[in-house]
Structure formats: structure tokens, C-alpha cells
Amino acid sequence: MIQTPYYLIDKSKLLINMEKIAHLREASGAKALLALKCFATWGVFDFMADYMDGTTSSSLNEVRLGREKFGKETHAYSVAYADHEIDEVVSHADKIIFNSIGQLTRFAGKADGITRGLRLNPGVSSSTFDLADPARPFSRLGEWDLKKVEPVMEMISGFMIHNNCENGDFALFDEMLGNIEQKFGPLLKTAEWVSLGGGIHFTGEDYPLDIFAERLKRFSGDYGVQVYLEPGEASITRSTTLEVTVLDTLFNGKNLAIVDSSIEAHMLDLLIYRENAKIEPNSGDHRYMICGKSCLAGDIFGEFDFPAKLSIGDRISIQDAAGYTMVKKNWFNGVQMPSIAIRELDGSIRTVREFDYTDFEHSLS
Ligand SMILES: Cc1ncc(COP(=O)(O)O)c(C=O)c1O
Are 160 and 77 spatial neighbours (Cβ–Cβ below 8 Å)? Predict the structure, then answer.
């Protein structure tokens, strides 16, 4: 038995998403790039690379990881590049997408050996949470004024537009794309490629994949562009669990179980967005609040139902622990960082990374 806490990536579950992505690419002609901001656990990149076209990034470190560990097509994007990093970014990328006209005009010369693009912001998004809404008022994420973009068109050959967020509703995607066409149609006609970003949950169980493919194909044909998608969450959803062990139980008006992990340290995104973790099947007569072991009073994974009383030493699997989770893990309270294990297609499990005191010590000085 592997010592908890550890993240467990199950390749057979990852494969379900990969096969949907491969089908979509085939049916639509769109290319799919893994968004490393969401998932950068490179131990499974070889496996994923058979089903995807490459990676997209948010920083110098990510673009380098994409180039070195995933290979294939490597897109660079960042909200802002610094002078001292731009040459190295360009050296790792096939294509660079600038966030603003200011960055584009400043660095176009440095990037004249690779394909250049610009991020556009259509001013609407599918997000209902302002923290994650790229179209929030005064958003810094991309240019929106056609008149400003037209004069720099000779410096670029395409655009990136990311305005879907956790969008599992095809009709809403269609509406978003319609908005983009209406707002930026004339610009799109002069482009060679358009990346529609991430945030489209097309690997979800009931998503109408073929209708989505048809819509992408039509968009591609109408504007004469190669379409790209940048799936993060859709690539890895439901593939990974966080395996933890109960360290203590107590009753404080509710049954509490403290586990050898921490939502603050190991599933931070849930805390930021005030969401509960998921435990399956979450049924039975014994309800527990599952709590983390950090000092944060609200370090709570959620309340769940179990078929039997929980005891010290019991193991619990917390579901959906890949996206924006492993990339955000931290050493808060010095809580033991989860190892990373992979379940191969034949069922065997191997640990690919363990963290120890030295990693904690080296994370600061
Ligand atoms: C530009 C861009 N591309 C891709 C993604 C990936 O989004 P998701 O993980 O929701 O698919 C994001 C997420 O914020 C993004 O900002």
C-alpha cells in the first residue's frame, strides 16, 4: 500500500477523455492543445501526446515544460512577458500569442522567426464568477477594440479568444461563438488560425460532441481558419483522485474526521471557489465532515455520507483531483505534499514522485 497522501492518476479514466478529444479532432479538423496551467503532471504526457496536438502555456516555465516533456506543437502565451525572458520563450515555441498590442509591438521583432498572434477579448463570457471571468469590467485579458487591432494585423496571423469557463452547455458555447463572429468577423476573415481557448467541457457525459464538431468545422470553413482548442479541465476531468487516510475522529455536534491532507494545501482551487470536494458514492447512514490537518479553521473538504462509521486508518478517495489542483499544491503548514502515482492500463500502480523534507526546505531559504 502506498503511503497517503497521494494523487492517483488513472490512465483508463484519462483515456476516456483522450478518445473524445481524438474523435473531436477527427470530426472537426480542430487541433487540441493541453493547457498546462490546468494540468502539468508530465508523467502522463507521453500517453496524452498520442491523442492531442501539443500544449499551450501561461509562462516561460510552462512553455519550456511543454516543449521538453510533451513535444509536438507548442504555443506560448502570457499575460505579460518580461524583457529578460522573451528570447527563451521564443526558443521553446512554435507560436507566440501576445496579450496586448503593447506587448506585440514591443516583442514582435524578437519573435519574427515564429508564428505570432494576439489575444482578443469579446467582452462577454460564460462565467458567473467574477474571479474567473475574463470579460469582467476593465479586464486586462486581451484587446477588444477592432480599430486598434487593424493597424497591427500585418504583425500577426491569428488570434486567441478564451471566454468560456466551465461551460458544459453547447447552446451557451454556440452563443459565445456567435458573439465572437459578430464582434470580430472582419478580423477573423483575415486570420489563418483562431484558438478558442479552454473552458469548454466537451468531454462531459452528455455533451453533444458531434454537434460541437460540426459547429467548429463550420466556423473554420466560414472564416478560412485552422481552429485550435486549449482544453485543460476537459482533458483530465474525472481521471485522478487524492488518496487520504483518517488520522482522528471527533464529535463536536457533528461527526468530524481529520485526514492527512489539507484542502488549502492540496486542493486549493476548491477553497478559492468555495466548492466542496467530491467523494463517491457519498451514500450511507454515517455523515462526516471531512477536515484537513492544517491550522486553517475552514480547512474542510465537505460533508459526506459513508456506509459505516469512520475509524482511524480508514482510507478515503477524494474525486477529481487533477485540474488546477496538482499545479497549485503548496507547503502550507509543512503538511506532507502528496506523492504522485499512476495506475497503468493493466491496473498496476507505480509511484512516480515522492516529496520529502528537502523539498520543503528548498521551497524557501
Ligand atoms: C487562455 C486559456 N486557455 C485555456 C485555459 C484552460 O481552461 P480549462 O481548464 O477551463 O479548459 C484557460 C483557463 O483559464 C485559459 O485562460
Answer: yes
What is the C-alpha separation between 59 and 92, in angstroms, rounded? 11
Q: What is the C-alpha to C-alpha distance for residues 10 and 18, in angstroms, rounded to an integer?
A: 12
**Model-level pTM greater than 0.85?**
yes
CA of 259 to the centre of ligand 1 (A): 31
Cis bond before residue 208 (omega within 30° of 0)? no
Residue list, ligand 1 pocket, CB within 6 Å:
35, 37-38, 162, 197-199, 230-234
Per-residue pLDDT of the chain (365 residues; tens, 9 = 90+): 999 999 999 999 999 999 999 999 999 999 999 999 999 999 999 999 999 999 999 999 999 999 999 999 999 999 999 999 999 999 999 999 999 999 999 999 999 999 999 999 999 999 989 999 999 999 999 999 999 999 999 999 999 999 999 999 999 999 999 999 999 999 999 999 999 999 999 999 999 999 999 999 999 999 999 999 999 999 999 999 999 999 999 999 999 999 999 999 999 999 999 999 999 999 999 999 999 999 999 999 999 999 999 999 999 999 999 999 999 999 999 999 999 999 999 999 999 999 999 999 999 99
Rounded-to-10 torsion of CA 278, 55, 189, 166: 10
Per the CB < 8 A criterion, the answer to whether 82 and 99 are in contact is no
Taking residue 11's Cβ as centre, other Cβ atoms within 10 Å add up to 17
d(CA 162, CA 169): 16
Residue 246 CA to ligand 1 centre (angstroms): 34
Q: Which residue, judged by its Cα, is nearest atom 10 of ligand 1?
A: 199
C-alpha cell at 246: 483518517
Residue nearest to atom 5 of ligand 1 (CA): 198
